Amino acid sequence: YTYIRTSHIGERPFACDKCSSSFSRKHDLKRHEKLHTGVRPYVCKICNKSYTRSDALARHLKSEPGKES
After folding, report:
1. Residue 68 sits in which domain range?
2. Model pTM score
3. How confident is the model over 15-44, as pLDDT tens digits?
4. Number of H helices, E strands in the chain
5. What is the pLDDT of residue 19?
6. Which helix or strand (DSSP H or E) is residue 62 part of?
7. Which stretches make up the C2H2-type domain (predicted)?
8. 32, 45: one domain
C-alpha cells in the first residue's frame, strides 16, 4: 500500500532537512542526503572528476574518450 500511495499518487513524505527536495521513498532521501556531505569518494582515473555515487562515475566513464574497460 505504501508503494502505491507514494509512487503512483505522487505523495512525497520524505523531505530533506537541508534543501527543498522531497521523495516518495526513504531510500531515495538517504541517497540524496549524501550530496550535502561534500564527500565524493568515486573519482575518475582519467580526468579526476569526482562523484558521490558509483553509478554516476560509471555513467561518466561510458562517455569519457579514454574510458577504461
Report:
1. 40-69
2. 0.66
3. 999 999 999 899 999 999 999 999 999 999
4. 3, 4
5. 97
6. helix 54-63
7. 14-41, 42-69
8. no
Residue type, 36: H
**φ/ψ (deg, to 5) at 53:** -130, 145
Q: Which residue has the higher pLDDT, 60 or 11?
A: 60
Q: Grid coordinates in use for 47?
A: 580526468
User: In angstroms, rounded to a whole number, what is the distance separating the alpha carbons of residues 27 and 39?
Assistant: 18
Helix residue ranges per DSSP H, the chain: 2-3, 26-33, 54-63
Number of separate domains in the chain: 2
Bridge partners (DSSP) of residue 51 are 42
Cβ neighbors of 18 (< 8 A, separation 6 or more) are 33, 36
Residues 31 and 47 grouped into a single domain: no
Instruction: State yes or no: pLDDT of 62 exceeds 60.
Output: yes
Q: What is the largest CA-CA distance in the chain?
A: 47
